């Protein structure tokens, strides 16, 4: 970082925070809405899902949990959209995660999401040997 503060580079560079600034929450919200809409249109059995799915409250909750990071939102979408599973059940599973303390660790919600996702998969055959 210090190299970018030197005179030669300082005049042609700009510091850009990757920590959820610059409208990231609204971009994450737009991404989630778009992807959930796609899932509702394209996945079999979604016609019987409650309208709207997911609710505005759920979208807002996921945006807050994301902290403005697309990795959280993207992971949720990939988990919910897994072909062999019900998107409604998967989203309910994600929403069942406890609120982690993001003040101590900015990725606490993502860590909790990964734990929740990994807990849905059966143990491997190697572990049963």
Overall average residue pLDDT: 82
Fraction of residues in helices? 55-70%
The largest sheet is: none
Number of domains: 1
Shape: elongated
Radius of gyration, Cα only, in angstroms?
A: 19 Å
Question: How many beta strands in the DSSP annotation?
Answer: 0
In the predicted model, the low-confidence regions spanning at least 5 consecutive residues are: none
Strand content: under 5%
Q: What's the order of the H and E elements?
A: HHHHHHHH
The total count of helices amounts to: 8
Helix and strand composition category: mainly alpha
What is the terminal-to-terminal distance? Answer: 49 Å
List the helices and strands and how they pair.
Layout lengths: L1 H4 L1 H4 L13 H19 L13 H11 L3 H11 L6 H9 L12 H11 L6 H4 L1
Helix pairs in contact: 3-4, 3-5, 4-5, 5-7
């Amino acid at each position: 970082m210090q190299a970018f503060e030197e005179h030669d580079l300082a005049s042609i560079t700009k510091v850009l925070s990757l920590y959820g600034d610059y409208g990231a929450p609204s971009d994450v919200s737009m991404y989630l809405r778009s992807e959930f809409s796609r899932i509702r249109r394209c996945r079999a059995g979604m016609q019987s899902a409650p309208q709207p799915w997911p609710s505005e409250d759920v979208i807002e909750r996921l945006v807050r949990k994301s902290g403005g990071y697309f990795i959280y939102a993207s992971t949720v979408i990939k988990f919910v959209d897994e072909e062999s599973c019900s998107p409604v059940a998967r989203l309910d599973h994600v929403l069942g995660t406890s609120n982690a303390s993001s003040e101590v660790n900015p990725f606490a919600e993502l860590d909790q999401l990964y734990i929740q996702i990994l807990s849905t998969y059966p143990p491997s055959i190697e572990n049963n040997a």
